[in-house]
Amino acid sequence: MLKFLKGVVGGSGTGVKDLPYNIGEPYASAWGSWVHYRGTSKDDGAPVSIFSLSGSNANDGHLVAGRNGVKRLRTVRHPNILSFLHSTEVETLDGSSAKVTIYMVTEPVMPLSEKIKELGLEGSQRDEYYAWGLHRIAKAVSFLNNDCKLVHGNVCMASVVVTQTLDWKLHAFDVLSEFDGNNEAATGPMLQYEWLIGSQYKPMELSKSDWAAIRNSPPWAIDSWGLGCLIYELFSGMKLSRTEELRNTASIPKSLLQDYQRLLSSTPSRRLNSTKLLDNSEYFQNKLVETIHFMEILNLKDSVEKDTFFRKLPNLADQLPREIVVKKLLPLLASALEFGSATAPALTALLKMGSWLSTEEYGLKVLPTIVKLFASNDRAIRVGLLQHIDQYGESLSSQTVDEQVYPHVANGFSDTSAFLRELTLKSMLVLAPKLSQRTISGSLLKFLSKLQVDEEPAIRTNTTILLGNIASYLSEGTRKRVLINAFTVRALRDTFSPARGAGIMALCATSSYYDASEIATRILPNIVVLTIDLDSDVRSKAFEAVEQFLQLVKQYHEKAITGDTTGAATGISSIPGNASLLGWAMSSLTMKGKPSEQNTLTSSSTSAPIASSISNTSSVTDDVNLTPVRVSSRSDLTDLADHPPSPTSTDGWGELENGIHGEHDGDKDGWDDIEPLEEAKPSAALANIQAAQKRPVSVPKTQVSNSRPKSSLKTSKDDDSDLWGAPADPAPRSTSKPSTAKASRAVDEDDPWGAIAAPVPKSSSKSMNLKSSADDDLWASIAAPPPTTGPKPLSGRGRVTKAAAPKLGAQRINRTSSGM
């Protein structure tokens, strides 16, 4: 006989000191004389079930049978049989008498009768759940009868318990015995403890104790009868009280009725084997049974079958009992994803099932799996995680994101797939608020700097939008260094018009972070030039932005007059932190990563903008409406390379042109090398000249035909300074009539080049011995002088050009400009 550890302790049996488990409240029902308690482990608090059986002495019949049940349960292992954890037998003193108690600890389970009441299933969902449960119990009985040659002896509702995952499991092994039908010498009872079985559950041969007939019957004969009793109790909802009640088949499903009658055959040899019951294709073929069965043998399925199954699973889950989906299917699905047996579409089903959980359960059952999946090398899994990050991102803790999630997500920034790069970029809108400043400055901004010069225009555009949305999570120093450079030097000069529009919107959305000096010297000059952009949408945004920033500067001016300069240029109180102000520009990339310029791109209408406006607390400032960036059509994108240049040429970017090419692999975040766009302020005369050079030259009428003396072309350094200092015409060195000079200036007052043109030569100037045929040639005045050697002087010949006079002045200016 199996020896159990015995200990003598004071008090009741529920206060056992050597039992490493805490005994809780009992359930209302249990099999036989056992008492079923809730319990927890003293080590980790894990839930367990504790069964106790007490007797007056160690030789009590119930205790002897109980010891047999503990031994059998410990040695027989099967997925559909209750899992044994621990057992002990203790003797306690109850007054003057001794009391012996057996404690058996198992996995946490609940009596089937109580679980059915708790679930409250009805209709087809109830029938599907019962079919699945019976399928589990029939497998356990088949294992005992056919594989182990054991007879359970008392299969009924009381001998079935339900786990936390709603699996049905068989227990109550006190009567369990070996089937000795092949032993001809055996004459005694085959079931030593058959007296524990209720008379209503005994088949006719067992009621008569006809052991010869029992030994001549198949091993499954007694337990098949028990399965019939279980089916009756299950569908009738009542505990069997008399054997005659089994004839009432009104509550039995028609698809199961024939098998039910064969299980309860009066002839033991004709009773249906439990294995044949499992082959009942009609009753056990339902959505729930097939779904769970597929999940349990998932490793045996090929990739095509898996992919098809998981694509249908989200819709199928809506049709299954909610409790079963959450407690049974969800753990199976999470385990399959963690160990790589499930394909990427399973992630969609996991997140949908997880949405039915409470916040606490979601953190325990779903989030750990998701965090582990970020380390997966399967690109499809990574894409799925990023596509659905808005469903679970808010539930992730900041520490988890910073330490476990982001290091894996960041690999997507450098992925060869443009589609994955774009998804990684968009995921930062959810993850960035949970990142530490060290991670943002040391890692995230480096990647965003590279994405702003990505080959995909959609990625460049959305990078600008992301920067505008996460600006509130940057430190003040980082904002000063990054935002203006990223939006003006790169975004506003991008060849892709939606990227320029996104830069304007981002500047407006982050307007509260700039002071008056930055707005006036670095932002407005870059925005104003876009008011003549080729794209109409960009022009509209530029005009709105100019008005907004001019209003900010005006408010600063008004405050400066009143002596209140606090908040310098933060006249508009934007949404706190300016967070979530911009919607994504587009989502048009494919897995192939082809450039998006090849197709007509439109703004993503399915993704609602994160926000649409900036609130304005100032009564004098108009509201700025921030809609998602619109991607222009082909007609708007014509000759993008010819968009107006920036007003400055010394932006500190070296060979970086239009913010499209260039690498930033250094330790800095990508924007440190950009210096503020501060230029040497030109004098009024130089500004006038530069403006004149950008306008077309009008051809003035020729006033004179005589050449100018050679000496008049030579001007001292001081004379040049006087020329650039004022636009007026200098007096010619040769004698000339003032009235002639005035007439020259009056010829074409609208000619911008007239202010810097050379003075008109006088007819009294010394002749250079030009040929008479060239008297009307204006280029003769600058012809080379005749050589001092040689037999014949070389007279200059000029090309006939009516615009020679203005050209002469322009040449002189160019020389002087290059000298400066």
TrEMBL record:
SUPFAM superfamilies: ARM repeat, Protein kinase-like (PK-like)
Region Disordered: start-end pairs: 593-674, 691-820
MF terms (GO), sorted A to Z: ATP binding; protein kinase activity
Compositionally biased residues, Low complexity: 600-621, 762-772
Superkingdom: Eukaryota
Comp. bias intervals (Polar residues): 700-709, 733-742
UniProt keyword Transferase, yes or no: yes
UniProt keyword terms in alphabetical order: Kinase, Transferase
UniProt biased composition (Basic and acidic residues): 658-671
InterPro entries named in the record: ARM-like, ARM-type_fold, CIK-Related_Protein, HEAT_type_2, Kinase-like_dom_sf, Prot_kinase_dom
Protein's recorded name: Probable inactive serine/threonine-protein kinase scy1 isoform X1
Organism listed in the record: Sesamum indicum
Organism placement in taxonomy: Eukaryota, Viridiplantae, Streptophyta, Embryophyta, Tracheophyta
Gene: LOC105160790
